[in-house]
Write a structure and sequence with these properties.
The protein has four helices and six strands. The chain is of the alpha+beta class and about 130 residues long. Strand 2 and strand 3 form a beta hairpin. The radius of gyration is 19 Å and the shape is elongated.
């Protein structure tokens, strides 16, 4: 990460920005959404994301003498999946995992037969912009 930031500093134009856009590591409630209700069915575990956050923060600190923070914001993103399989495939590619009881899995499979159903959780995202000093 430090090498990538140093390389970005090397090639960026004088007025250019380095953008740090990442989810804030936290647990999130997984919801089953149907036409008529929203049912909490599990938890998206964000504990491994804290390790990535710490590594990114260390990298920014290591090259931080050359960077000036110019703006910072947070926003919420709705993350949606059409099936439990899609959720599992996506999470297997990331550092997160879903904690879902057997009873909730049965409910999700039962509801999957309905046309208007999806799974969702909300991601808290941080956006920070830096400019070279």
């Amino acid at each position: 990460m430090v090498h990538a930031l140093k390389e970005a500093q090397r090639v960026i134009k004088q007025e250019g920005l380095i953008i740090d856009l990442r989810p804030i590591a936290h647990d999130a409630t997984l919801e089953l959404v149907t036409d008529d209700k929203v049912i909490p069915v599990g938890l998206i575990d964000g504990s491994k994301g804290k390790v990535h956050d710490a590594a990114t923060n260390r990298a920014l600190t290591a090259v931080g003498d050359n960077l000036q923070e110019v703006s910072r914001d947070r926003f919420i993103v709705s993350v949606n999946y059409e099936s439990l399989q899609e959720l599992i495939e996506h999470l297997s590619e990331s550092s997160r995992r879903a904690l879902i009881s057997d009873q909730a899995i049965q409910l999700i499979h039962k509801q999957t037969k309905r046309k208007h159903m999806h799974l969702r959780f909300y991601e808290d995202v941080r956006l920070t912009c830096y400019r070279l000093k």
